[in-house]
Amino acid sequence: MKEAKEMSASADETLSPLHDEHVALGAALTSFAGWQMPLRYTSDIAEHTAVRTAAGLFDLSHMGEIGVTGPDAGRFLDLALVGNLSGLRVLGARYTMICAEDGGVIDDLIVYRDTEDTFLVVANASNHDTVLAALAERTAGLDVTVEDRSPQTALIAVQGPRALEILRATEGLVEAGHDAETLKYYAAIPMTFQGSAVFVARTGYTGEDGFEFFLDAALAPALWRAFLAAGAPFGLVPAGLSARDSLRLEAGMPLYGNELDRTTTPHDAGLGRVVKLDKVDDEGNPLPFVGRAALEARSQSEPARVLVGLEGLGRRAARHGYPVKHSTAPDAPTVGTVTSGAPSPTLGHPVAMAYVTPEVSAPGTELAVDVRGRFEPVRVVALPFYRRHR
């Protein structure tokens, strides 16, 4: 057993149901969105590389799980969110957002449909309470119940090219009449582990193939250990928040608080496709979902800023908040701001995402980033930086 690199949890921090497992593995723990979570177990690069080449095991129990049930559940989500959730097939999943009336993003979400009248909304940990309150406020006049399932739910992910093999090899995990191998991306199936229900989705936040497992929190340690045992021959390692962030950055996936926030619309982030302005009510009239007027106007206007990828041409990485300059000249004007940045273990050079003015947003445009007073050259590239081999 490794020596635990444990920090003391403050009184208002929540511990994952897998906390003792992380301590036993010697994880470096960190405060994140009101939780104490593993930052890393060994090294950031080793964990990142394992996910790209074999598989990584993640504890995502800090995410918020919100149940939406009732005869009007689909209609309610159509009104409350920007997507068309009533059209989601049973055991399907959809990426969507919840916005304010002014079109600003409150959170980006994944919604799963368990049954015709039952949905699961998964929110970011930092926005869990806000999303729960916003959904509750939007239920007026509808036969629907919004319930926080987070306290009793754990979420474990196996991500990487060998994820399916590990799923198949895990003792006690049964596919319950469904075939995980034929499960499509952004779809789900019911499974069981040691006789208890597990909801399994082929989704993730790493750019790799993989599965996410929703289950009762009390059962989580046993499944975590079963995955570690089954995955060892396939190269599976536990991976922390640091590797999760560098993986999602390479995959060009937005992070709330960086690429998305209340001042940003889905269109600003290049995600206008998730806003379904063609939603209609029973009479065929445009459905007045929250934020519709602002988002419709935004969809018809020219952007003031564009989210782009930046390929570092030097060795120093840009970081969140660093200014983007028109060139490396000392008096070059500022043309944007970095939202996320880090060295890319997979590509071998720094990468970043940034909001820049439209006139410098074309791929191939050479710019610079002010890295603590030194202008580092970068090149605009299309997102994502990395795509897995399918």
From TrEMBL:
Give an example GO cellular component term for this record: glycine cleavage complex
**Enzyme class of the recorded protein, top EC level:** transferase
Q: Which Gene3D superfamilies match?
A: Aminomethyltransferase beta-barrel domains, Aminomethyltransferase fragment, Probable tRNA modification gtpase trme, domain 1
Q: Which UniProt keywords apply?
A: Aminotransferase, Methyltransferase, Transferase
Q: Name one Pfam family in it.
A: GCV_T_C
Q: Which residues form the GCVT N-terminal domain?
A: 18-279
The cross-references to InterPro entries, in alphabetical order and at most eight, read: GcvT, GcvT/YgfZ/DmdA, GcvT/YgfZ_C, GcvT_bac, GcvT_C, GCVT_N, TrmE/GcvT-like
Residue ranges the record marks as coiled coil: none
Tell me the residue numbers annotated for binding substrate: E212
The molecular function terms of the Gene Ontology recorded here are: aminomethyltransferase activity; methyltransferase activity; transaminase activity
Q: Which GO terms describe its biological process?
A: glycine decarboxylation via glycine cleavage system; methylation
Region annotated Disordered, chain positions: 323-344
Q: Which reaction does it catalyse?
A: N(6)-[(R)-S(8)-aminomethyldihydrolipoyl]-L-lysyl-[protein] + (6S)-5,6,7,8-tetrahydrofolate = N(6)-[(R)-dihydrolipoyl]-L-lysyl-[protein] + (6R)-5,10-methylene-5,6,7,8-tetrahydrofolate + NH4(+)
Q: What EC number(s) does this enzyme carry?
A: 2.1.2.10
Cite the Aminomethyltransferase C-terminal domain residue spans from the record.
305-386
Q: What is the role of this chain?
A: The glycine cleavage system catalyzes the degradation of glycine.
Quaternary structure note: The glycine cleavage system is composed of four proteins: P, T, L and H.
The family note in this entry says: Belongs to the GcvT family.
Name it. Answer: Aminomethyltransferase
Species per Swiss-Prot/TrEMBL record: Cellulomonas terrae
**Lineage from the top down?**
Bacteria, Bacillati, Actinomycetota, Actinomycetes, Micrococcales
